Amino acid sequence: MDIKRKNNSYTRISIYWKCQLIGWSLVSIYWAYTVYIRDNYGIIYTLLNYILDISIGIFLTHMYRQFALKAKWSSFPIKQLLIRLVPTILLLAVLYMLINNLKWHAYWTLIAGEDKKLLESIMYWDPILLTGLRLMSIWILAYHLYHYYQKEVITAKENVKLSLITKQAQLDNLSAQLNPHFLFNSLNSIKSLVIENPNAARRAIDLLSDLLRSSLYEKDKDLISVKEEVSLVKDYIELEKMRFEERLQLEITVDETLNNFKIPTLSIQLLVENAIKHGIDTKINGGIVHLTIEKNSTTIKIIVKNPGTLTDTKEASGLGLKNLKERLAIQYNGKATFSLTTLNKETVGAIITLPIKHDENI
Q: Residue 336 in contact with residue 355, Cβ under 8 Å?
């Protein structure tokens, strides 16, 4: 099997050689036609001349390629490369002229039997020198443009790959911060129940276990469906109600057509947690947390309202909300927004606005 693969790799013709053979074969057709019609070379000598023309073109350009690869010319900036290419093209054109003139001199003196002086034959430049300049310029420019294009494509792919890796690393880092943040707040809630109500504490531990299990299952996903996120929020509210009892209420209004829409994992849970910590917990009588998820033609809004005011600057600049803002910026390329505002004298609203159409793979 390995021997067959090696043999196939040797017999397979590379793109470079395919282009060389096809390109110079097509170019040399004109000269074959010229010597056959104008100079009456005959079929055999015309074919021989055709093969020699192909060989000369491939020989000169391949020698240039070997030199350019060794000198690493393709790595030079365009200006530096052009400075080197101009004299090189002139040199190759002169060599093209000299080799072709020697070929024709050999034909006219050895085969046709005419008396041709070697110096005059070699110095004959019009139109062969101009042809050489044209052909070498086209070949060399095409060669370097191809490599320049390939380098740009590779660079672009590497940049995209690096960008994706960077974004994923950022999201992983943010998720690593978010999970302990959520865990510590939940454990604080359970701690207060251990002595006061052991049965409620056991139920709270079960709920926390379920929440953590869901978090672990979704840890490799940056996005989660609205339905799953709302279910997680309900479990979290049940956990917190064991501490707040009737002081904490939750009202949910969700457009059912959005159940399968993907949103950042634990984003709503974070807003609800924030509403309880800075709203419900500060009120003697507690209050109601309102969760609304709605859409219009281009965006989806997630709104969490809670009683309170934005007098506490820590509420707006805490780790959780800062974390959320960074996640939105990364996952939606700046097309998603988050705001925390005072809706009226006694109500604070946290609003996430997401574009309906976005690339979830970014």
A: yes
